[in-house]
Amino acid sequence: MIATRATFTLPLAGRDPLVLGPRTLVMGVLNVTPDSFSDGGAALDPDRALDRALAMEAAGADVLDIGAESTRPGAAPLTGRDERLRLLPVMRRLHRLRIPISIDTTKAEVARFGLDEGATIVNDVSGLQYDPGLGDIVAVRGAPLVLMHMRGRPADMYAHARYGDVALDVARDLTRAIERAVSRGVPWDRLILDPGLGFAKKAADSAAALTGLEALASLGRPLLVGPSRKSFLTAAIGDVPAADRDWATAAAVTASVLGGAHIVRVHAVAEMVHVVRTADMIRSHGTGARF
After folding, report:
1. Is the pTM of this model over 0.90?
2. Among the CATH numbers 2.130.10.10, 3.20.20.20, 3.40.50.360, 3.10.20.440, which is that of 22-287?
């Protein structure tokens, strides 16, 4: 079954609004970290980071998501100062981009810094659990906020992978994240929800969350799904390195699009743009929409 998908318009400071729904948007991932699970610090050098960002834009990325703190299991946490120092030389170069930038952080001070440096979206993998003050920054600046489903911290998140009905449990947890955001002044209509594939979820849990996107859609907000190169894919393809999981990622991206995702977050932008466009074409026939 192909899920229906509502259309949402989210204003962006100084830019055209982000229109979610008529087609699936592609968010390219730029990790400014030495220990990323997916690319091993390939974009830590500012000039290389700019080259990768420009290449993703040229390949068809609609949004660029930049982060400087790894969330892989066992990753060492960063102070806000260190996170900002990693981001600063890269953010200064990214002013050349035409597409909007999302700052991937759980810290209020880093969110403020990112927005000051040109980001227009904030992506919080903790769903405002780690630093509720991040919500205050977003509220004042009027930026869209991505709330991802997460339990615990990267060091212990798999100990929290205990679910009854995964999709319904994730929807309940994200309802609480929405309440946290609204209580800090973030408008409900600026929120985007992410089921957090691979975070506090075993492989079967991630698959269930992916096939249960309808439960999240019932919360009335657009959906972002990030299956790219995640370890849950190895349950299907075996223990292959993250960089070799793009074919599996393509299948999960297709499932995301057909399941109702508005945005997919990926590493291999050029390849996944083709996947998304094909999945959108299939969607258009399944829902009766015009492609």
Report:
1. yes
2. 3.20.20.20
